[in-house]
Amino acid sequence: MDMKRLIIIACCLLAFVPIKAQWDFGIKGGVGSTTQQMGSHWDTKNKLGLLAGGLVTYGLGDHFDLQGELYYANRGFKTDIWLDLNASKSSDWYFTYHYLCMPVMLKYFPMKKGFYAAVGPHIAYLLDYKNDIKDWPANEPRERLDWESGCNRIDVGLSASLGVILNNGIFVDARYNLGLTDALKDGESKNRGFELSVGYFF
Question: Which segments within 22-153 are labelled E, that is strand?
Fold first, then answer.
């Protein structure tokens, strides 16, 4: 069984495990800086995007929580393109992915509360995809930029984060997401990125 199937099974099992423990709901929002690893023939740069959603945490004792999340994330990357071979400078080519994300994180609290470290698998479903070139010629049809049919709908990977939860329920989380599957169907194109979010547990 390959890694993609193992992570999908793990997400599904962890998301529905019945746990007799304290559980809390929360919301979060923040910003991400993402790119894609696409091999040596593409020079990709990070792109900023927003994220927002909800989460639920199950207490597993003094030092561990199991956290499931469901949130929207605007991800993607940008690269340079020369629209005219005689041009003196390149144009920015933006790739934007709109994902619905479902990570399942195991959180460890060294001091029972406050600071934590977390790790777990994530699955993201592609809701929509767009790409746009700055300075695209006005007389060229925009349909030439539509590559949505070449995208994979499911993105599977691993997430790791560091954070802190305050006594009033406010938390800050810094996370790195490592994509394990290709975002595009025709070659190596794995998502990478950092997320910084602020949230509140009710």
Answer: 23-37, 44-59, 64-81, 91-108, 115-133
